[in-house]
Amino acid sequence: MENSKSIAGEEQIIQDLLPRKFKNSGKILVYILSAFCLVGIYAYYRQLRYGLIVTHMRDYVSWGIYISNFVFFVAISLVGSLITAVFRLAGVKWGSPLTRIAEMIAVAAIIFASIIIIVDMGSPERFYNLFLYGRIQSPIIWDVIVITTYFFISILLLYYPLLPDLQILLRFKEKSGPRLHKFYSYLGSFWKGSHKQYLLSKKAINALCIAIIPVAFTIHTVTSWLFATTYRPGWDSTNFGAYFIAGAFLVGAGAVVVAMYIFRKWYGLEKYITLDHFDKMGRVLVLLCLLYLYFNVNEFLTPFFKMKESEAGYLNDMFSGSFAPVFWFAIFTGIILPIIILLFKKGRKPLPMFIVGIMVVVGAWFKRYLIVTPTLLHPFMPMHDVPASYHHYFPSWEEWAITMGSLAGAILIIVALCRVFPIIPIQETINEHHETAK
After folding, report:
1. Residue 274's CB: how many other CB atoms inside 10 A?
2. Could you read off the pLDDT of 284-326 as tens digits, one per residue?
3. Domain residue spans in the chain?
4. At 91, is the secondary structure helix, strand, or coil?
5. DSSP secondary structure string, 343-404?
6. Burial of 298 by CB count in 10 Å (0-12 exposed, 13-18 middle, 19+ buried)?
7. Cα 414 from chain centre
8. What gap in Å lies between CA 421 and CA 158, rounded to an integer?
9. What is the pLDDT of residues 88-112, one digit of tens each?
10. DSSP, residue by residue, 197-227
């Protein structure tokens, strides 16, 4: 049975956790992700050249797959930082190997959440006007403020815990190579590992952990307010803030589980990311699934019971109409089946957990798509005398290409970070090993 006590000495820990050059499989992955990004860039070039007419968004569906992707990225980034903050503040030792994975996911996701908003703009060259002429009464400006704040805190929360590891990485110039060694020196040559530096670093990390919790809650609450403050069927809800946060916790935890499995297999980290980690994350996931299921019932039961005329078309389309297959797929794949699988101990083994994590992430993406599109196709004022294309929405190939390119780009950032930095904190693992030995 895997156990942290079986980890060898300090030098063995360092050798196990040092960043490694990609093998052929890693290089192929980078090429594939880069290809998706290039296709997405070409599609965006077409959008810039010809305008948003190349998309299938029109007067009614003015928010399409781009905003669905934005909400998805914000959701994933939320739990990445929260896992780090909560684990560190609560002194949860078993979570130490997962904190950096969560931090990398958070940084990659928030970067592309910001990028996808610019992609959605018809005139991105006017983006600076948000900062020059933004009105604080607008929820869009609230989103700009909290996303910017959250981005910088996430970067710092990734960087500060890295400092002791950078000191270790500087000792292995022959492995890292001259370029990476120079990069490590630039980032952490001032770190000497003194007691005073450790105390300052600990205080700074605790301050960031405390600060990021309300910011993380705010970023997803404000994103939900972008919808809830717009008077439309399906969005006119006071439940949206809690509904969005519950969903964000779930998809973020699912993404962390997927990354845990991949890194564990890819780098042979079975001694560090153990069966116990998967079991505990499985328990967390099933709790989050149950919580999100409750908010889904709460979100749809009351309007369905009252069945106001303005809501009827939207609800019928979701439950039994054109969007029903996607809706029920998202509910069963992203919530119901994971609960059933994770209730059993065998379902909390690495491979079943990996499959459940993918199910949760895929279901969550479709759930974000359903939050945006059906509502826009069912305005309070019925559509009259408009082209037939206004009554339906399915993304164009440019929209799909940009979406897939953004998802590939986020994964590419995570892959690049794990190539440059240790996936599991080295110094923290060494300290825990010494404590266990004592």
Report:
1. 20
2. 899 999 999 998 888 888 777 777 777 777 888 888 888 899 9
3. 19-208+396-431, 230-385
4. coil
5. TSGGGGSHHHHHHHHHHHHHHHHHHHHHHHHHHHTS-SSPP-S--GGGG-----HHHHHHHH
6. middle
7. 11
8. 10
9. 777 777 777 888 888 899 899 989 9
10. HHHHHHHHHHHHHHHHHHHHHHHHHHHHHHH
